[in-house]
Amino acid sequence: MKGAVLARLVTAAALAPSGHNTQPWRFLVEGERITILPDPSRRLPVVDPDDHALYISLGCAVENLVVAARGEGYHAEVDDTGLDGEDPSLTVHLQAGGTGGGHGNGLHSAISQRQSTRRSYDGRAIPVGDLGRLEGASRQEGVGFHLFTDPGRIEPLIELVEEGNRRQFSDPAFVDELIRWIRFNPGEVRKRQDGLTHAAMGLPSIPRWLGRFIMGKLVTPGSQARSAARAIRSSAALMLFSTDRPDPRGWVSLGRSFERVALTATTLDIRHAHMNMPCEVPALREELRRHLELGAAHPLLLLRIGYAQPMPRSPRRPLEEVVVEGSR
Ligand SMILES: Cc1cc2nc3c(=O)[nH]c(=O)nc-3n(C[C@H](O)[C@H](O)[C@H](O)COP(=O)(O)O)c2cc1C
């Protein structure tokens, strides 16, 4: 396979979303085989102590890789048996002559267009047919997908999001970790090419010392909770993803399902933004599970969707930083 194709495929995989834009992946390229490995130096020990968000992000990357490979005319097969080992990994086997059909075709061009859009949405409802397409895109064994459009069902979820915000922003370790991944000005963005940029969050460029001061003194648990509630009320719907198995295999499956939904939404001009707070605080996750009567399923991603203008894009690190050639 040509180097240029491999480079395009890895670029597509690395455009996947990841918690705090940590980009917690490395790609081992060996002939017609690309192995995706977690990068433990990019873990988020406070907000994601069990690494579920890290593996969801790897699932998003693998889905992008598969979609891009099919779009380039390759057959792509995912081997996830490596997830059971001591050093979990996922391998994608590529073979020329794929159909270019299935999920791959329409979604390929959405990979570079998809973004997390953190701003107020315009309140318009999503046509039922388009909600049906999101539901169709979500289907993945062991993954549950739930859409909420009725304000009566959304309001109790807003309360859990608000409570999640209050608890997280009352925890100095959470705020510290978040500040470490915020890029407060263009100089920081250029240097790191990762993290949550001021522009993607709709904030002005400021020096780090001022950012620290604002995050420590002016961003309060109450102000965060109120702005999350307003953001949800401006949206058309909430969507929730759950998994039957709380392990790397289940988390990767959930990530693949989420990424397909996110790409499908992008083709329909539907935007998305994470409202994960109640999934991240274990006691609230349990409350969410009980409230929605999810049985043994683990609710791990909550997002709002709707219509809005795009925001500036989040950066990605250059390929040289994420590709490991030949040996691990
Ligand atoms: C597992 C996972 C968890 C995330 N959690 C949050 C979150 O709690 N809040 C948020 O604003 N964004 C969240 N995001 C979105 C990321 O911050 C976003 O994907 C990253 O900054 C890259 O930006 P992009 O999606 O626009 O490419 C999450 C993404 C993933 C994959």
The biggest beta sheet is recorded as: 5 strands, mixed
Helix content: 40-55%
Briefly note the CATH topology name of the largest domain.
Answer: NADH Oxidase
Question: Regarding CATH, which class of the largest domain?
Answer: Alpha Beta
The Cα radius of gyration reads 19 Å
Strand order of the largest sheet: 3-4-2-1-11
Give the amount of beta strand, in percent. 15-25%
Count of alpha/pi helices: 13
Q: Based on Cα principal axes, name the global outline.
A: globular
CATH superfamily of the largest domain: NADH Oxidase
How many E strands?
Answer: 11
Oligomer: single chain
Give the averaged pLDDT, no decimals. Answer: 95
Tally of distinct domains: 2
- Please write the string of helix (H) and strand (E) elements: HEEHEEHHEHHEHEHHEHEHHEHE
Q: Based on helices, strands and strand pairing, what is the structural class? A: alpha+beta
Ligands and ions found: flavin mononucleotide
The first-to-last residue Cα distance is 21 Å
